[in-house]
Design a protein that fits this description.
This protein is an alpha/beta fold. The protein is 46% helix and 18% strand. It folds into 2 domains: 172 residues, Rossmann fold; 146 residues, Rossmann fold. The longest helix is centred in the last third of the chain and has 19 residues. The mean pLDDT is 94.
Length: 361
């Protein structure tokens, strides 16, 4: 397994390097991993059910993969699983199942247990993991490698790589969807375009360092974007943060919204966007600060937001990748504003370090 780099104590932290390296990592995958993708596609194509299994950030990637395979490749039999649930309350498995385990470094207990469970029941097995992963490739029928081991404990580049791998798999399964395949080839450029928003995102972070609570909302595949942004905020800058499906946010969580909050909306110009504007106006009415990630040129739709950050034009299925980039940057720069090291999983705090004696990831 690739060892972690020497810690840093100031900007640029390793997380920043990883965020900026994402276009090159995606380009490498598109150029070098297609043969592995085709092997995995044959495996999946021969299966009656597809199980995408991961935990933490990898579960968020699995949710995006489920959406892409269902909507682009017409695989209604696909399901994203949290690996703990997959192991503790497993589905019936046999040789007609394909189990794809997502694991950045191959070290998470329940992801490894998921792979063992699938093999024990004769299911076809596949792994999406990082270069230098601890997973033995002999444990799976197919392996796609994403990036070198993420240099920060706040995973960014490896998460983008996992979503790219699932997009490549979807494109191979849906060989008749040329527009999706062509757009996938443009993904490195789309992520590069999203990275140009860094100066605006840095200003956003500086203006919101005093926010007490953060909520992120999205729908469709970008519900996962909201979940992932909230997870990164907790990991990197330790703020009180939650991610919600857009409509679910109204059904209870909205009651806790007030002038101590910032609500960030992921708002691609797709079905459901008008509902996001309703919720944004409601958040403004109770005094919350609001922000929106929107497609370039769509600012008028979200004119009520206090902060607007642009993302490049992209299809709904692929939008979680470039739309997440400004939120990764926001997480990073808010950590810098608050004086936290985003790389270390808070293990530089003796209390959190001692807490690790009670569990193993």
């Amino acid at each position: 397994m690739t060892s972690l780099p020497v810690p840093r104590d100031s900007h640029p932290y390793h997380m920043h390097d990883a965020i900026l390296a994402q276009p090159d990592a995606i380009a490498r995958m598109l150029n070098e991993e297609q043969r592995s993708v085709e092997r995995m596609a044959r495996l999946v194509g021969e299966s009656e059910r597809i199980h995408l299994v991961g935990i933490g950030t990898s579960w968020h990637a699995a949710l995006v993969g489920e959406y892409m395979m269902r909507t682009i490749a017409s695989r209604e039999d696909v399901r994203a699983w949290n690996s703990f649930e997959f192991v503790t309350a497993p589905p019936s498995l046999d040789r007609s199942d394909a189990v794809i385990v997502l694991s950045h470094r191959g070290t998470k207990t329940y992801s490894a247990d998921s792979l063992d469970l699938a093999r024990a029941h004769g299911a076809r097995t596949a792994v999406i993991t990082g270069v230098g992963s601890a997973i033995d490739p002999a444990m799976a029928h197919a392996v796609i490698q994403t990036s070198v081991s993420d240099p920060s404990s706040a995973f960014t580049i490896s998460h983008t790589g996992a979503m790219t791998a699932l997009a490549m798999l979807t494109a191979t399964l849906a060989s008749n969807r040329r527009r999706f395949r062509d757009e996938l080839q443009r993904l490195p450029g789309l992520v590069t375009e999203a990275l140009t928003q860094e100066p605006a995102v840095r200003d956003w972070a500086a203006a919101t360092r005093g926010v007490e609570r953060h909520y992120f909302t999205g729908w469709g595949p970008n519900a996962s974007t909201a979940y992932e942004a909230a997870l990164k905020m907790k990991e990197a800058n330790y703020t009180t943060t939650e991610g919600f499906h857009l409509e679910q946010y109204l059904h209870g969580p909205f009651v806790s919204t007030d002038d101590g909050c910032q609500v960030t909306f992921v708002v691609p110009p797709m079905s459901g966007a008008n509902r996001a504007i309703d919720v944004m106006n409601a958040a403004n009415a109770v005094g919350a600060r609001t922000a929106a990630i929107v497609q370039a040129g769509d600012q008028e739709r979200v004119s009520a937001a206090d902060t607007v950050i642009e993302a490049p034009a992209v299809s709904e299925a692929l939008s979680p990748i470039p739309y997440l980039v400004p939120l990764q940057l926001y997480t990073y720069w808010l950590a810098v504003e608050l004086g936290h090291n985003p790389d270390v999983f808070r293990l530089n705090d003796p209390r959190h370090l001692s807490a690790r004696d009670h569990y193993q990831l």
